[in-house]
Amino acid sequence: VIDLSRLSHILQQDCQLVPASLVLIGVSGGPDSLCLLDILYRLGYSLMVAHLNHGLRKEAVADELAVREAARARGLSYISKTADVAGYADKNSISLEEAAREVRYRFLFTQARRCQAQAVIVAHTADDQIETVLMHLLRGAGLSGLKGMKYRSLPNPWSKEIALVRPMLDVFRDDIQAYCAGTGLHPVFDHSNLDTTLFRNRIRQELIPTLETYNPGVKSHLLRMAQTLAGDDQAIEMLTQATWQKCCSECSAMYVALKKENLQLQPLGLQRRLVRRAIAILRPGLRDIDFDTVEKILSYVQKPSRSGHLDLSSGLKLMQEGKTLWLASNERDLPNREWPQVSNEWGHLCVPDYVDLPGSGGWHFLSESVSYLPEAIAQAQTNADPFQVWIDVSMEQPVFSIRPPRPGDRFQPLGMDGHSVKLSDFFINVKMPKRARQLWPLVCKQDEIVWVPGYRQSHMSRLTPQTTKAILIKLIKD
Amino acid sequence: VIDLSRLSHILQQDCQLVPASLVLIGVSGGPDSLCLLDILYRLGYSLMVAHLNHGLRKEAVADELAVREAARARGLSYISKTADVAGYADKNSISLEEAAREVRYRFLFTQARRCQAQAVIVAHTADDQIETVLMHLLRGAGLSGLKGMKYRSLPNPWSKEIALVRPMLDVFRDDIQAYCAGTGLHPVFDHSNLDTTLFRNRIRQELIPTLETYNPGVKSHLLRMAQTLAGDDQAIEMLTQATWQKCCSECSAMYVALKKENLQLQPLGLQRRLVRRAIAILRPGLRDIDFDTVEKILSYVQKPSRSGHLDLSSGLKLMQEGKTLWLASNERDLPNREWPQVSNEWGHLCVPDYVDLPGSGGWHFLSESVSYLPEAIAQAQTNADPFQVWIDVSMEQPVFSIRPPRPGDRFQPLGMDGHSVKLSDFFINVKMPKRARQLWPLVCKQDEIVWVPGYRQSHMSRLTPQTTKAILIKLIKD
């Protein structure tokens, strides 16, 4: 038997319905929805009955009339629509079942919006729940699949304001049949099977009876399992939310930045959830996040490769930059770090001079002659600001070019007497963010790199006791 | 094919084995254990081979010789024992399969202890894992069952120091067969089926092939599900551990005290875990904690009944005391709260006097005459210490009795002129802890209650402007 006081409790506590406020109920006319309609009516809920004629079968008209009559007999408002489900399926190249589901829910939510209903209510049963859980199990699922459907879904795929509620998730079909028989309800033949794919039908008619030969109580076990797992999932989602704050440093629809070290500290299960959440932010439409993609990211988090790059399915890339892991479709999508960047056109720097860095917001070079040399030598020796430099110009006219790196550039960093390195290697060694490299401004004398602002001057340009003339250059951000 | 470098990684990372330190391997002689033996030997692990002859079949002797030979051929130490599994099953009224399992693990761990092995290693496969998961699913399980077996179990039912490790949980039997064939190993027929009940055999031979007709990839899905759920379970256990600190105020093998309000604040899934943990502390032997018991406690936590008592299966009781929920077999088992308690024998109190409270550690009554009455009246009016009282003795000789409550006791609390209440109701109203009530000391004049220490004096005993003589009584804890 259906425990009405329990159902009433679920409607208020779990579904969070307010009896006085309108609810839109989807009624096919089958036993489940007719039973739910009758119970809600008896419990005094304010109802609007909605029926979708899928336009697929002849009997559909009779079904529609039956639902209309069920509403009329109770003095309830009624709305119906005939849809071209077959056409929709064709047009979108999806199965008839998927099309029916999509068209139906769209209809229900459109109507709910129109009549300002607090929720759309549907009559999924405990049997539906178990079938759903088994489908997820067979197709491969984690906790979020195994926990089954929820009493209340908000947001849901159809609305961010109107909840989708399913109060009968622990009521078995047998009890619904008994309720209908006992209260003289006359459901139409349950065409909601339209909703059920062949796969679901096989699960219902073959697999569940088979499982019952292993354990006659398997249905109630699976139902309880789903309930327990729903609680676990909620708890772990709460933990994920709290940990997300610690692990995500930046986030938009285009990119997610994760703090590598904080991520590494988390237990594996939580790392998995955090990575899934990052992917879900960038790929909100993705229904199933690939297991292997997640595992690939996790092993990268444990041991990032030197190159700092990981191509993932679904067109995402994982990029390492210092202690940050960026997830994005492309490097281009990452936020502007406000580094100094130079356009491909060169600039020139005289002394004294003030040169705006073209192509980079707010950065400019300043140059000036040094008037008192001993002081400059002392300052240069203890210089802690990598964005200022003292340069020996004893031998030559102080005119410099400012340009981005070029293939084949070499550089002889301060302290490396007689040795030059590839500029690209130097960038790696000093851990310059990869995407800053291409347009990093270099200060050159003729073609020789004199200063890599922010990192190092060249060995030859340093002040020595032999220096007779020096200049000071600064790269400054407003 | 078996990926040896992956297995080697699992042995070190997940099983946490140190190659140089001894491992005891249980070898039945079947393909799984023989394959594992061969691989560990090739990877250079230091091994002791152990074989249990279950004494149930004729072929067992041949199996034993085969294992002995496998050890000898690799120059490994070997130990075996013949057990009377059938006798053990009889004696303990358990199934042959359970007996075999118990006798075998005991033997392995006894030997591991003897030879100071770092771990006992066994050859459970991915197929075993999937069967285990399905068994749990059919019998009703939460996350901890669905996650299956672990690579490393410590503590385990047989030891708190020696780990039980299972490195082959993601290697399928087919690959093991191929390994044996490819490396010329000659396993005996796999009698480890002794380990498998009829139920497990049906799952292996019938259910899994059936599930594969629904989805050919179901085995790998189930394996991944178990891995994912293991991570989730670990994360949620971490959260449970952290929350336990906030919710459990006291805990021993006899009782658990939970802070009701903190418990109520947690999401349902976490409440469930905390309650399960409390039960597991008091009933460590309990293999499955009953779903209904947990749900019963949870709904009690949401809405405790007035009586503050909940009888649970497994002989536990949930008792409410103020903001604390006690879980214990019996009220007797709860810790002594160090309340004042009096034995059933009475005591007498004169003035001045010093009386040790019999039956209660460290509590004593002190009485003295009041010398300056106006001051006493003023003090009595602003008295904030419920363990001291001023009593009017203008009319009578100050001699009091001290006794516990009796059935039928009535009391007229200060301020309730002309009205007396049942003492038992008074106790409830002032929220005296239930289990303190029976032996709470009362100060009486003849049979009339003059003072309930810690709570209230009687209306008649108060000081008034007409008082000519007064005494002060204190109940003090050292």
Strand order of the largest sheet of chain A: 3-2-1-4-6-5
Q: Which percent band covers the strand fraction of chain A?
A: 15-25%
Distance between the termini of chain A: 75 Å
What is the typical, i.e. mean, pLDDT of chain A? 90
Kindly state the number of beta strands of chain A: 22
Tell me roughly what share of residues is in helical segments of chain A: 40-55%
General shape of chain A: elongated
Describe the structure.
Two copies of one chain form a homodimer. Chain A has 478 residues and is of the alpha+beta class. Chain A has helices at residues 4-14, 31-42, 60-73, 85-92, 96-114, 126-139, 143-146, 173-182, 198-214, 218-247, 260-265, 268-282, 291-302, 373-381, 423-429, 434-437, and strands spanning 23-26, 47-53, 77-82, 119-121, 152-153, 163-165, 248-251, 255-259, 309-311, 317-321, 324-328, 347-349, 353-356, 363-369, 388-392, 400-403, 410-411, 421-422, 442-445, 448-452, 456-457, 470-477. In chain A, the strands form five sheets. In chain A, strands 3-2-1-4-6-5 form a six-stranded mixed beta sheet, with helices on both faces. In chain A, strands 7-8-11-10-9 form a five-stranded antiparallel beta sheet. In chain A, strands 12-16-19-20-21 form a five-stranded antiparallel beta sheet, with no helix packed on it. In chain A, strand 7 (248-251) and strand 8 form a beta hairpin. In chain A, helix 12 (268-282) crosses helix 13 (291-302). Chain A is elongated. The N and C termini of chain A lie far apart (75 Å). The interface between A and B is large, with 43 and 43 residues.
